[in-house]
Amino acid sequence: MKVLIVEDDVDAAAYLSRGLTEAGHSVDVAGDGETGHEFASGNDYDVLIIDRMLPKKDGLTLINELRNAGKQVPIMVLSALSQVDDRVKGLRAGGDDYLTKPYAFTELLARVEALGRRKQTAEFEAIYRVGDLVLDRLSHTVTRNEEKVLLQPREFRLLEYLMRHAGQVVTRTMLLENVWDYHFDPQTNVIDVHISRLRGKIDKGFSKPLLHTVRGAGYVIRADAD
Amino acid sequence: MPTPTRLFRTTAFKLSLAYLFVIVVLSLGLIAYISSTTARLFDRQLETAIDREIAELNAEYEASSLFKVMRTIGRRAMRPDASVYLVTDFSGNPLAGNVSELMYDPADVSQNVAFPVRYMRFTPGEGEGEEAHRALAKLSVLGGGYRLLVGRDVEDRIEFATIIRRSIRGAIIVVVALGLLSWIFLSRSVLRKVDGVAASSQKIIAGDLARRLPTDGSGDEFDRLAHSVNAMLDEINRLHGGLQEVSQNIAHDLKTPLTRLRNRLEEAMRSPPAADRAPEVLGPAIEECDQLIRTFEALLTIARVESHSTGVTLERTDLSALLEDIAEFYDPAAEDAGMQLNAEIAPGVAIAGEPTLLRTMMANLLDNALKYGASPTGTLDLSLSRAGNEAQIVVRDFGAGVAAADLPRLTDRFVRMDAARTKPGAGLGLAMVKAVVGHHAGALTLENADPGFRVTIRLPVQA
After folding, report:
1. B425 to chain A: which residues are within 8 Å by CB?
2. Neighboring chain B residues of A84 at a CB cutoff of 8 Å
């Protein structure tokens, strides 16, 4: 993926750039809002990562201008402001996701990759398939190896989100925000328990598990275990 | 001892000045009204007397002769309060009367209207050089061209007016003097009290936080003010003490994980781990950082919620749906912890709330219950009911509860009971709960339920 980082903190930008490059992405860095605008207008990026507080042109202004100019590219907003209304402002300005500093790099990577692949993923497809696991979004049914799997409504949405991002790492926070719409951090392992229940329903009794735990990052659903 | 310039700057001075002005203006107005009314009354009485005499003399002239009239005038002129009389022939030669000289402005003269004159009284046996008197006079034309002038002396009236003017002047001087005196007295006593307050305040500002403003028990406004300020100082002192404790706790509670973090990093530097062992060595360090970040986030949120500056206004929130959701969310975790979450949630209870904060609050309570509420029966009760205008949320576990002595401290920041020391957490959960409940104008009760621990939250419902 081609990623543009607009961030004035040189250390933070270098850290992000290094991490994303190691993960196999090509990265450009702009140090202020105006340069960011120039870069974003003149190139086709898969994802923009924009800090909220920028010199010369504020992050939210920059996003607004890009959106008004018809740019559809997914945007990740980074901010030190963590209040609910800060997040709402960031998303309302045209951001697609909002991450509060400090963040774990694995969290950022998972979210950026989820954003970048959104274009080619099956957001509008009716049926998701991972191996022999099939989820029908219209009839709300799930089958594994053509056998019906009974899921609670929330379990269905959890599986649906995982399968929409099949092959991508999905973090606990992403699940919390996208499946439950919760923006707090439960101290107990609530998400892990939900996952292990889901796993019990879709993977139990099958020799080839589909739902995997990625240590220190989150979960991934994929057919070819490696 | 207050200096004169300070006396002028006092409120008492301004007040005294204002009162003085009002009183002087009022008295002047009143006196002016009374004296002008009196003067009019006098004039009317004079005119009536003059008219009567003219009528009498006229009647006498008509009935008998000019001579008779002159005799009557002569007789009347002998009286001590005699009127002024003058009878002249048609060419103006005096024929009878009691004036030696008469001065008036001919322009003022017209029949039957009183006009002012000045005259010299003709008194037999007394020499000239007498002063001219002022009088009000009327002119009447008798038959045969004789003219009759009758007037009344007005010197008394003028003297009366002079006396009134003098007394006004005297009264104003007395009023002003009294005003000045009361101002000096008031200012000095007020200044003395204010100086006392200012001196105490200065000492408090200088750091003597235990000092209080002087009170004299008189119950006057200064005393009441001093009592209020003292109560405020007590409260500030209490908050200040709390703040100090919090900062000390923060320093302590952040130092401990920072020390652990530093130790780990130092160890990693001393004997760098092999690449495959790096997560094992550095993973806990990162986890330590994450815990620190969470602690900071929680502290910031509590501070923002407590200062009511979250920037989000309360919106209508379906509390029933919110709790159903949370109960469903926590149900598997409870089961995993060997507990059965019994949710009894009354439908359709709505409050004015901030959903994210309410969810955080519930998550903290349920996290706590899962961590500390383990029991043989393994039950965890969550209920929402509506009682009158209050929504009541109860979270109750059947675990060991907390020591009675610890109950009042539970909602303080960084307070962790002995049982909690071995479990993860920063001791901010209930502090957060308290802040959120306060933000929603609710009431929080924490109590041992024997067995177990019960948290009750009452929030005002929205119709």
Report:
1. 187
2. 310, 312, 354, 356
